[in-house]
Design a protein that fits this description.
Number of helices: 19
Oligomer: single chain
Structural class: alpha/beta
Number of strands: 21
Distance between the termini: 60 Å
Strand content: 15-25%
Radius of gyration: 23 Å
Mean pLDDT: 96
Amino acid sequence: MSYTIGVDFGTLSGRAVLVEVPSGREVASAVYEYPHGVMDERLPGGRELKPDWALQDPQDYLEVLRHTIPEVLKAAGVSAAEVIGVGTDFTACTLLAVKADGTPLCRLPQWKEEPHAYVKLWKHHAAQDKANRLNAVAAQRGEAFLARYGGKISSEWAVPKIWQVLEEAPMVYEAADRFIEAADWIVWQLTGRETRNSCTAGYKEIWSKREGYPQEEFFAALDERLRHVVRDKLSGDILPLGTRAGGISEAGAALTGLLPGTAVAVGNVDAHVCVPAVGIDGPGKMLAIMGTSTCHILMGEEERQVPGMCGVVADGVMPGYFGYEAGQSCVGDHFAWFIDNCLPAAYYEEARREGRSIHAYLRRKAEGLAPGESGLLALDWFNGNRSVLVDVDLTGLILGMTLQTKPEEIYRALIEATAYGTRMIVETFRENGVPVEEFYASGGISQKDPMTMQIYADVLGMPVRIAGSKQGPALGSAIFAAVAAGKAAGGFDDVFEAARRMGKVKDEVYTPIAGHADRYDRLYAEYKRLHDYFGRGGNDVMKRLKAMKKQAK
């Protein structure tokens, strides 16, 4: 029997799954919580961080490998010799500054208290001013790449983050031999070989299969010191998804317990790698990976310009198709914020009496409400708007509250807001010539929250199919690991065949409830009015308030 291992590095934890090949049966899984978590207030040594920062310690990623891979092997009673490949995926853009041998600067004593030496997590938004300037310069110069990213590069992407380092900590920029995605860095640690994958390069680093990176003159127009950033700090050697990055090195074997030479797939992004995990093998099928944020992945047969998309990349998801990405920056984070900050003690007491978790208790109360019953409407911008406005300076809004408003009504309104945001994305793709004919959901919310998934079906007016795995990205990584290993080793030479054999969805499908869908059409129309008024310049009060907040600190 042959097996592959997929390791998914999320925002708060990493998880590994051991998968049987070719059946796709998940044999064992393990989760490891990052000891440092997300550092958005201070460094481990106590140094305070400014607003909109989000950092991590890369040592946490190595600890995931050290703990989870031996754990799944032991739990399944599988030997390392039976493992033919390993695949990994990461949140993105999650960026490290490293030395030429891969050592992160933050692990060196002289940089321990320097924030710019740490990993900048995907939701690090402190480079928004750099993104604004980049977009203005690119538009002024008529740079063709801008259209591939919906007209705007996000502050979450690589170039604004690198530029922030250069401008605010030039000594760190000089000390860094490389800026590299965590998706590629972890593969480097496993194989001893630096590689770059086409997914993060295409979606997060302004690279294109046809044109490569923008010309040096563009980077010089941003800042003369960035003229040679690609040559000096990045890499032009970009490998396609499913490629074998190398074999497990001696150091990688010592870290994981796997055998030296075991195939390792090039890095991938957590959302994109999930597509084959639900068996998607063609265009017109949107997958929403729902967690702390949501990424929407879709394949098309043509390259189209879609306002507010996060990118369109040839072969960016699966070969032969244009892969489209969109996203929402605040979904699970949205709901967790409300539960952590806005519930009265009586709700916790009643949940304890009923023997329910506070989440289950609140959900039970919220699902008894009819669409529109609360009189509330919310904008899902508590962490900015990724698509379709691409503006992290936007903030949340809840409209319609009275002295009779109940917590469960607000909670449901926040859930509905994220569904409206997804519908905005779907309609924008359709309006710009990219079909969306089916809708799939993966991630923790899709697995454990039927109320939310029914709301999504009602708001979208489409059936919602649910991933058959609780660990969609990890399963997707295991599928790409089987492709990296190749058919001769017991895997696959074709990711489409691998997806059909190893991917899966549940039998249950959430279908729209007719009466609910009609009401949600009316509510969505109101959401769209608020969306355009506050998000497209009708009233910039959110940005003015955010600026005042920064000035007051």
